[in-house]
Amino acid sequence: MKIFSGSANRPLAQKISKELKIPLGKVEIFTFADGEKRIRILDKVLEEDCVVVQPTSPPADSNYMELFFIIDGLKRSGARSITAVIPYLGYQRQDHIFRDGEAVSLEVVVETLQSTGVSKIMCFDLHSIKIPELFRLPLVHLSALPLFVNHIKKDNSILVSPDMGGIRRIKELSELLGNMPYAVIEKNRDLATGKVEAVDLSGDVKGKTAIMVDDMISTGRTMVVGSKLLLKKGAKKVLVFATHPVFSDDSKEILENSPIEKVVVCDTINVPAEKKFKKLEIISISGLVAKNL
Ligand code: R5P
């Protein structure tokens, strides 16, 4: 097996290669002055099973193109099979039409990905249960929830879904934790402005440590408005867990200055030094990836 990395998350690819005791393969990624990329596979891959690690996190467009070209380079160099490890799948939140006239962006990128010659895809915690249906190729859909289990203290704590869409996730985690109690926040998001508000809470968080769990943190606003509501409803403190640290805009400042005590995420997306902050803890998915390759 040969493992290659795009430029989106080399630290993760390095960890996976260490787990598997296979050195990272050599790929040349050259960016022209106009931003276009030229990819060249430098290793011999004829009749080899190859793996490419490339989350399509921001900048999603550029990371997708790089992934497509690496797969194409491997295919043209005679690889026997190509597994794309895409721990975070960009555009997954636009998986259906919310308002008339919208494009289903995820379907477009999945179709393009499937036309590149990739053999298998590995993803983590996809946003909705319907997304796997979009794939015609084998999809290994993994979850970070089992990794979170070892980091959650059950005593006097309650799990919380920050929105209705996360109920399935919170029930699954509750089961993994021996039916730990959970609560659900009712969240509203204005599709035009992106503004979020936590409207209501079902469940009793009084005097407890509230542990909010989500698939991703983008601007951080969902977690922050949620934490404020939980504290207003009597929670003792708030911790948050999310698989994907998308960390857009000023999420670092928003989370740092919030009443949230700890933010736990995975390395599905690389968090550069300038986006890290004191309350942040990062758990690696490398072992899970290596085990499932
Ligand atoms: C939405 O349904 C997702 O599960 C997340 O709650 C959302 O994407 C987080 O976004 P933000 O951090 O910008 O509020």
Describe the model.
The strands form three sheets. A seven-stranded mixed β-sheet has the order 10-9-8-11-12-13-14, sandwiched between helices. A five-stranded parallel β-sheet has the order 1-4-5-6-7, sandwiched between helices. The protein is globular and about 60 Å long. It is built from eight helices and 14 strands. The protein has helices spanning 10-20, 60-76, 105-114, 145-149, 167-176, 221-232, 251-256, 286-292; strands spanning 2-5, 27-31, 37-41, 49-53, 81-85, 120-124, 139-142, 157-161, 182-189, 196-202, 209-217, 237-245, 262-266, 280-283. The longest helix is centred in the first third of the chain and has 17 residues, at 60-76. Helix 1 crosses helix 8 (286-292). By secondary structure, it is an alpha/beta fold. The structure holds ribose-5-phosphate (R5P). The site of ribose-5-phosphate has 14 residues, from strand 11 and helix 6.
